[in-house]
């Protein structure tokens, strides 16, 4: 029982922190101004890890390498802790550790896309004039705009978030299955 609780807590904390690191990189990629509440919160949560790395890994062409490397390091620490809780020696999986860490980062990114899309869809129905809508639109537009070209609006209803949700869920299944089959340990 302790192991299940510890895995749940680690999964929650590391997924949220990993998502914040990825969101930081994504905010920079889409050139969202750093002076909005979302950017400020993400910067405050992640500065302690990203700023020291930024001294070694500068940004290049809108890519925040420090945030991306911090995300991979976070995923490696997460996997090692999960393995230790499961009484598995991390050194036994050393060759696969980086691959599983990258799959974990992809999983966190896909989860982030799902949550941003759900939040945007809910706000568009409940409060379309919310100050968060322009931020959410800018963050999700690169994913939704290509789908909007494929699926026309039906009676003013945008079905592209539903299609994106289905696509991302399928990708999550594939990534999770790949990570589990590589490591042979349950949940990552």
UniProtKB/TrEMBL annotation:
Keyword Oxidoreductase belongs to the record: no
Organism domain of life: Bacteria
InterPro entries per UniProt: CCB3/YggT (IPR003425)
Any one annotated GO CC term: membrane
Keyword terms, alphabetized: Membrane, Transmembrane, Transmembrane helix
Stated family: Belongs to the YggT family.
PANTHER family cross-referenced by the UniProt entry: PROTEIN COFACTOR ASSEMBLY OF COMPLEX C SUBUNIT B CCB3, CHLOROPLASTIC-RELATED, YLMG HOMOLOG PROTEIN 2, CHLOROPLASTIC
Identification of the protein by name: YggT family protein
Species this protein is from: Paraburkholderia humisilvae
């Amino acid at each position: 029982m302790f192991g299940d609780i510890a895995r749940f807590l680690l999964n929650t904390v590391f997924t949220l922190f990993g998502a914040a690191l990825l969101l930081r990189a994504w905010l920079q990629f889409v050139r969202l101004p750093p002076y909005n509440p979302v950017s400020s919160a993400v910067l405050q949560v992640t500065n302690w890890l990203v700023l020291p790395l930024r001294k070694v890994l500068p940004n290049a062409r809108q890519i925040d390498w420090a945030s991306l490397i911090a995300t991979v390091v976070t995923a490696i620490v997460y996997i090692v802790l999960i393995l230790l809780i499961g009484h598995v020696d991390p050194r036994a999986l050393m060759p696969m550790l980086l691959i599983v860490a990258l799959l974990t980062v992809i999983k966190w990114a896909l989860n982030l896309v799902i949550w941003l899309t759900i939040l945007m869809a809910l706000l568009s129905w409940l409060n379309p004039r919310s100050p968060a809508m322009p931020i959410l639109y800018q963050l999700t537009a690169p994913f939704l705009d290509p789908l909007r070209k494929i699926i026309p609006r039906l009676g003013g209803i945008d079905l592209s978030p539903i299609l994106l949700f289905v696509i991302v869920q399928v990708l999550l299944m594939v990534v999770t299955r790949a990570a589990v089959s590589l490591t042979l340990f349950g949940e990552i």
